[in-house]
Amino acid sequence: MRLPPLNAVRAFEAVCRHGSILKAAEELNVVRGAVRQQIATLENHLGRKLFTRDGRRLVPTVQASAFAAAAGIAFDILQRAVLELEGAEQNRIRLGVPSAFAVWWLMPRVADMQASVGDTAVEIVPMTVVEPLQMHPELDAVIMGGEYRPAPGITALRFMEDEFGPVSTPSLAATLSKDPAAMGALTMLASRSVPKLWDEWFAESGTRPVVFSRVQEFEDLLLALGAARSGLGIALAPRASIEDDLERRHLVAPYGFISRPSGYSFCCRTPDAKRPAFGALSGWLLRCGTSG
């Protein structure tokens, strides 16, 4: 069987992964015209169109999306096979972590984590917007919160349950009644990195959505929680990210917490899951997650 040109497949996979010719060109360090040419080459080879147009956007067909996912897995396998053939030792794991989770849960435990994986260095990469691993070829693994969805070629370990709920300073919480509608008098602190978090809490807690007097958005949940600690308003927080603040009474949860169905998952590429360092890291996460 005559395989398509690998450069064309690589450009196509990058476009599908990023949803953008420009971003694919930046990753591949080429101009946009070169990416378009590679797409045309691949379409000519396969004898079919791979994208439809939605206004100015290119949307992959259903078959093209499946092909892109398979191509991404194949490139990952090929890259790791080359490393093994060259005898290169993987002595580093680049781990993408939600920034708030990294600061308040992972970093206080980082010395114990590093000891668990021995000589392999774990490099923590804070992520403002947590995206699936297949969107980040530069990372070796990611920790996903409620955003996680199963994906081909990715092994995921759910290592910790979590809860979430509205949090504020004790002084602001003292102004609230037992009815969550009372939160409307406060400023809602939201994060663009998890834009649906408040909606999810209203739906999953069975609480009628609150009309807030004011809404202030931040780029990162870490910033929104910092604003809550300063008394600016009320934020929606995963409990695992603010355990220390709760213990020190910097923040309180006036309406308690409810369980998040997805919890937290450690996600890595399936071939890497068999490597000792990845096994040690996932085992450590599972021990810490179940013990609190």
TrEMBL record:
<dbReference type="InterPro" id="IPR058163">
    <property type="entry name" value="LysR-type_TF_proteobact-type"/>
</dbReference>
<dbReference type="InterPro" id="IPR005119">
    <property type="entry name" value="LysR_subst-bd"/>
</dbReference>
<keyword id="KW-0805">Transcription regulation</keyword>
<dbReference type="GO" id="GO:0003700">
    <property type="term" value="F:DNA-binding transcription factor activity"/>
</dbReference>
<dbReference type="GO" id="GO:0006351">
    <property type="term" value="P:DNA-templated transcription"/>
</dbReference>
<feature type="domain" description="HTH lysR-type">
    <location>
        <begin position="4"/>
        <end position="61"/>
    </location>
</feature>
<keyword id="KW-0238">DNA-binding</keyword>
<dbReference type="InterPro" id="IPR036390">
    <property type="entry name" value="WH_DNA-bd_sf"/>
</dbReference>
<comment type="similarity">
    <text>Belongs to the LysR transcriptional regulatory family.</text>
</comment>
<dbReference type="Pfam" id="PF00126">
    <property type="entry name" value="HTH_1"/>
</dbReference>
<dbReference type="GO" id="GO:0043565">
    <property type="term" value="F:sequence-specific DNA binding"/>
</dbReference>
<protein>
    <submittedName>
        <fullName>LysR family transcriptional regulator</fullName>
    </submittedName>
</protein>
<dbReference type="InterPro" id="IPR036388">
    <property type="entry name" value="WH-like_DNA-bd_sf"/>
</dbReference>
<dbReference type="InterPro" id="IPR000847">
    <property type="entry name" value="LysR_HTH_N"/>
</dbReference>
<dbReference type="Pfam" id="PF03466">
    <property type="entry name" value="LysR_substrate"/>
</dbReference>
<keyword id="KW-0804">Transcription</keyword>
